[in-house]
């Protein structure tokens, strides 16, 4: 009787072990697939990531003169997930959340980015960057962001391995 229980235990252990290995392989494949993608989540029409230097056309109802006056841009300077030169355009009063979570306005599939990593808000004079309690922090010009920090044109914002340069449009 004892040998039958031990034999059943061995099969149960092997079944759990195989399920664990399958789950690890599926999770790794999903992470590798996500690491090659960065996307703007659907339903967030007001913010777009453009692959050229042109302002985003994501703000409905703005004419060309308004679109070129008072806008701010985060231009990708270096990134493992976004093409260099991609642009995120913000108009005064707009705010985006950057993170790894699908609910984020700008999704960066980077292991060094928290699910809700940082927020960037546009004001008339520049951008305000706020770290949202991320694990690895947000850097502006190589300095850690504590609380809210005003960022002007030409400054760099680093979130994970992605580096943005602030530009006025």
Overview of the molecule:
The structure is a single chain. With about 170 residues, the chain is α+β, with helices and mostly antiparallel strands. The protein has helices spanning about 1-35, 65; strands at about 40, 50, 70-80, 85-90, 95-100, 105-110, 120, 125-130, 140, 145, 150, 155-160, 160-169. The strands form two sheets. A seven-stranded antiparallel β-sheet has the order 2-4-3-13-12-9-10, with no helix packed on it. It has a six-stranded mixed β-sheet with strand order 1-6-5-7-8-11, with no helix packed on it. A hairpin with a 4-residue loop joins strand 7 and strand 8 (about 125-130). The longest helix has about 35 residues, at about 1-35. It starts with a helix and ends with a strand. The model is unreliable at about 40-45 and about 50-70 (pLDDT under 50).
Short summary:
This protein has 169 residues and is an alpha+beta fold.
Features:
169 residues, single chain, alpha+beta, elongated, 13 strands, 2 helices, six-stranded mixed β-sheet, 31% strand
Mean pLDDT: 82
Which regions contain 5 or more consecutive residues with pLDDT less than 50? 38-47, 52-68
Percentage of β-strand residues? 25-35%
Choose one word for the global shape. elongated
Termini separation comes to 79 Å
- Largest sheet properties: 7 strands, antiparallel
* Protein structure class: alpha+beta
In helices, the fraction of residues equals: 10-25%
Number of helices: 2
Question: H/E order of the elements?
Answer: HEEHEEEEEEEEEEE
* Rg over C-alpha atoms, rounded to the nearest angstrom: 22 Å
Strand order of the largest sheet: 2-4-3-13-12-9-10
Count of beta strands: 13
